[in-house]
Amino acid sequence: MRILLASRNAGKLREFEALLPGVELVPWPAEAPDIPEDGAFFQDNALQKATFAQAWWAGQGAVPVDGVLADDSGLCVDALWGGPGVLSARFAQGLAQDAKNRKLLALMPEGAARTARFVCVLAWVPRGGAARTFSGSVEGALALEPRGAGGFGYDPLFVPEGHAATFGELGPEVKHALSHRGRAARAFLAGL
Amino acid sequence: MRILLASRNAGKLREFEALLPGVELVPWPAEAPDIPEDGAFFQDNALQKATFAQAWWAGQGAVPVDGVLADDSGLCVDALWGGPGVLSARFAQGLAQDAKNRKLLALMPEGAARTARFVCVLAWVPRGGAARTFSGSVEGALALEPRGAGGFGYDPLFVPEGHAATFGELGPEVKHALSHRGRAARAFLAGL
């Protein structure tokens, strides 16, 4: 099975390669246009990305794929009223990830609860079929400072419930078993 | 005391007139530029609006004000991962408010918890002084359909904790006593 992944994020590509064994993933080409995401919800954005990518791909006469998969995900922090949430990729754009992580921690009000969750919504557009979405989330808390070099994005900040290490410190197997993206990917495989 | 309100929202102006007795509120002029809001958090947006408005006003040589007040607020729905949150004003732009309210309700997953909160962050830039912020929130739940013509925005959807009526049905006095904006305004008055 061959799937076009509507993302230029190398971290997402690497994770889906592990999470979707037996699937040939086609990454979004360097020469393709940027994929828009301006929805107010993860689900909107995932659907917007998948349908945009599907339409563009179909117009290229490129190698056929069995469908297009898009991922919209983010970190929702209770003390920041659910932010950066759907704006996770857009927060502090231009900063390197470590600086972005430290900037996010600096926004936390003193003494506030550090509870947070990672959310992932996948949108799937099969060739000739209708779009569907699958979601996953994981509860946890923000660490006091970034820890670990594993994963990507806000992973060094996030301590999943029941653990003491961050997603940046836990290996990929442990992360995938717990993570928002792992859960959404398993829901997608079960729904295929 | 004369305060420039960095908002064109008639509902906000009306509420601040009730919430800030004795203050002469100057509304944002029709001929003034649109006030940008592209932050990832309520606090960013409130500060961005207040500093933008303060700089523009200072360049006009218009009637002096004692300071500029901006309000960034929104509805955070747990089942929508805190959305529309900071994107509350941008969600379904172009739709009339009642259609927007119904569209939001239609996004609720079946059987999901309906808990939500309204959040308000005020940014205050006094003449010649540094910016400060004040915030307020109110917990509640989404009604099954819009009810009541009071208030504005998502008020017809929101049932505050401990009540059975929506902010659209409760009168302004009850709303102001409970609301996110009422709490933030009282924190502002106490901090002045």
From TrEMBL, chains A, B:
CDD domains: HAM1 (cd00515). It catalyses: ITP + H2O = IMP + diphosphate + H(+); XTP + H2O = XMP + diphosphate + H(+); dITP + H2O = dIMP + diphosphate + H(+). InterPro entries: dITP/XTP_pyrophosphatase (IPR020922), ITPase-like_fam (IPR029001), RdgB/HAM1 (IPR002637). GO terms for biological process: nucleotide metabolic process; purine nucleoside triphosphate catabolic process. Its cofactor is Mg(2+). Its EC number is 3.6.1.66. The active site is at residue 72. The keyword Hydrolase applies. Keywords: Hydrolase, Magnesium, Metal-binding, Nucleotide metabolism, Nucleotide-binding. GO terms for molecular function: dITP diphosphatase activity; ITP diphosphatase activity; metal ion binding; nucleotide binding; ribonucleoside triphosphate phosphatase activity; XTP diphosphatase activity. Homodimer. This is dITP/XTP pyrophosphatase. The lineage of its organism: Bacteria, Pseudomonadati, Acidobacteriota, Holophagae, Holophagales.
